[in-house]
Amino acid sequence: MNTTTPDSDTADTLLAVFDRQLRENALADGPGATVERVGDVVRQVGPGHVWNGVLWSALTATSADAEIAAQVRHFASLGNEFEWKLYDHDRPADLGERLRAAGFDAEPAETVMVARVADLPHDVEPAEGITLRPVTDAAGVDLMTYVHDRAFDNDSTRVRERLLAQFAEAPETVTAVVAMAGALPVSAARMDFHPGTEFASLWGGGTLPEWRGKGIYRALIVYRTRVAAERGYRYLQVDASDQSRPILRRLGFVPLTVTTPYIRRP
């Protein structure tokens, strides 16, 4: 397995493509979402289940504080919690400190990793006794939220609402899968497609604690890789936790940068 950057796709080149396609020129990521370009900021807004936040910015030491304040006022006027998705290469270099000073809370950092679909394995089968079930309806979404609530110890209500809206209104933008041990859902994940780009992105890969270490997470990545290949996407992207990063490295994903969610609550 090739664990270096694929072919001529150097890490710097991949990062530039990622920034351009998924951040600076981002499209809305689902039903009800709107992407707005205001000055040197690209943001997404929407009601309810929609992710609200800043996707990209081109700020300077001179302009940053005023722009942060403008975004805080804008999202406060909507009554929305929002995320400033900061990347280590964003400028100015002290943007994270400025966000904290403006009342944002930093959540755990994740590593942005990318792999070329053609370089990933496509034929890994799940462990014995595990079957992979495609998610296409509300019953499947309920199985996913069962897993996520227990794997991540949080409330998956917004994730459930988002997935139901995607399957109902924009099914071409998402695929999802649940790993079943008999009648028990033990792992689940989804993949978002970004039409007009070369990227599909992996989200929500979670496994019940007692079922970890059995290769199920890896099988879910391979399942989604096959789907991405069938749909003609060139790259897979994932925001990797410390737990998933070693698995992704072994499969062939390359780390590009680190992202930290900064959350501002109304």
Topology:
Blueprint: H1 11-24, E1 34-38, E2 41-45, E3 53-57, H2 64-78, E4 82-87, H3 95-101, E5 105-106, E6 110-116, E7 130-135, H4 138-151, H5 157-169, E8 174-181, E9 184-193, E10 199-207, H6 216-230, E11 235-240, H7 245-251, E12 254-264
Helix pairs in contact: 4-5
Write a brief structural summary.
With 266 residues, the chain is of the alpha+beta class. Helix content is 32%, strand content 30%.
Brief descriptors of the model:
266 residues, twelve-stranded mixed β-sheet, globular, 30% strand
Backbone CA Rg: 18 Å
How many E-type strands? 12
| Count of individual helical segments | 7
What portion of residues belong to β-strands? 25-35%
Globally, the shape reads: globular
Helical amount = 25-40%
Give a short account of the largest sheet.
12 strands, mixed
Mean pLDDT, as a whole number?
94
Low-confidence stretches: 1-7
Helix-strand category: alpha+beta
Strand and helix order: HEEEHEHEEEHHEEEHEHE
